[in-house]
Amino acid sequence: MAGLSGLGVAVPDGTPSGTGSVTVRALRLLEAFTPDRRELTLTELAARAGLPLTTTHRLVNDLAGWGAVERDADGRYHIGLRLWEIASLAPRGLGLREAALPFLEDLFQVTQENVQLAVREGFEVVYVERIAGHSAVPVLTRVGGRFAMPPTGVGLVLLAHAPTDVQEAVLDAPLQRFTERTITSARELRRVLAEVRRTGIAISDRQVTMDALSIGAPVYGPTGDVVAAVSIVVRAPRPQRAGLIPVVRAAARGISRALRAPALPAARPPRRDPGPE
C-alpha cells in the first residue's frame, strides 16, 4: 500500500503483495522493518512482506550478502550498514543536512528548544535532521521518520508550497485528527495554507499533541523552489511565541543562502618565481 498513508488513507499501488519483480519483492522485505519492529525473524519477514518463506529465504540471503540486511547471533535480521551508506548519498538527505546543520545548531543554541529540518516526500513529511533539548517538550518525530503534513509546522510550509495536484489530493482526503485542535476541515486548511504563503511562517498550535507548538519557515533551493522547511517545537501554550518567529526565519534564510552558494574552486598551486634568467 502506498500514497496518502500519512493522512490515514491507503491507496493501492496495483501490485499484489505476493507478486512483482525480484526488485519489488526485495524492497517489500526492506519495507517490513519499521521503527517499532527493527529486528525480525525470517518467518516474520515473510509474513509482513506477504511472500512465501522459500522466496523470502532466497532474497534475504541475497540482501545479506550485499549488506542491505544483517543477521544477529539469535538469527534475527535488521537493516544493514551498507544500506545506510547508500541512503546517505541522497541529495535531499546528507547534502541538505550538511548545509543546514550550522544554522540548526545556532537556532538550538539561541532557543534550547527542539529544532527540526524536513522535506516533502509524496504526501508526507520526512525529517532529515533533529536537535532535541534535554528539557524541551517531547516530540513524536525522529530522523528518517515520516509524518502527515497538515498538522505540523514543517508540513504546513511544505504543503503550502507543494504542487497544486499534491495540495488538492491532501485537501480532498480525510484529514487525520491527532488532538481536539487538529485542523480537519479542508476549507480551514486551505485558508491556513494561503496565510503561510502570505507570511512565510507556519504555526501549528497543539495540533499533534496538546503540549507542543511548532513554528516553521521555508528553505529555498538554488532555483528558488521550496526544498525543505525548518522549525522549532516548543512547549504550549507559548504567549511569547511571536519572539521566536524572527530566529526561525533567520535560520531558514541562512540555509537558503548556503544552498545557493557556489562551490569553491579547487585551490591552485602557488606559482613558482623562476628568478632571474
Could you characterize what this model shows?
Helices cover 39% and strands 17% of the residues. By secondary structure, it is of the alpha+beta class. A 6-stranded antiparallel sheet has the order 5-4-3-8-7-6, sandwiched between helices. Helix 1 (22-31) packs across helix 2, helix 1 (22-31) crosses helix 3 (53-66) and helix 5 (91-111) runs antiparallel to helix 9.
Summarize the structure.
This protein is an alpha+beta fold. It has helices spanning 22-31, 42-49, 53-66, 81-87, 91-111, 153-160, 164-172, 186-199, 245-260, and strands at residues 69-71, 77-79, 114-121, 124-131, 146-148, 202-205, 212-220, 226-235.
Total beta strand runs = 8
Distance between the termini: 77 Å
Tally the helices: what do you get?
A: 9
Rg, alpha carbons? 22 Å
The averaged pLDDT comes out at 83
Kindly name the structural category.
Answer: alpha+beta
How helical, in percent, are the residues? 25-40%
What proportion strand? Answer: 15-25%
| Shape designation | globular
SSE series: HHHEEHHEEEHHHEEEH
Point out poorly predicted stretches. 1-18, 264-272
Can you summarize the main beta sheet?
6 strands, antiparallel
